[in-house]
Amino acid sequence: MNSIDKRPVAAAAAAQALIVAGINLAASFGWVSLTSDQLANLNGFLALAMPAFLGFLIRNKIVAVVDLEWVEEEPEVSK
pLDDT digits over 45-78, tens only? Predict the structure, then answer.
């Protein structure tokens, strides 16, 4: 079982951070020529689009706690 199966939200956040950091690093080193407005717009787009895209990819990996069959209800303790 890999990390995306164990912690899908953390893995998606790490992937987004690496992509955004890579683009900003490439722009700061001059490997791609972007104006400051273009870079700001690209970062804004990625801040909106990447969570939606990565959320779509990991949607089947997240299970709500109430849906788990192995969750047992604790008996109520009367006082």
Answer: 988 888 888 888 877 776 665 655 555 566 666 6
Listed in sequence order, the residues at least 6 apart from 24 whose beta carbon sits closer than 8 Å to its beta carbon are: 39, 43
Tokens of 5: 């199966």
Distance CA 15, CA 32 (A): 21
**CA atoms in the 13 A half-sphere facing the CB of 45:** 7
Q: For the chain, first and last CA: distance in Å?
A: 44
Q: Is the pLDDT of residue 21 over 70?
A: yes
Cβ-contact 32, 38 below 8 angstroms: no
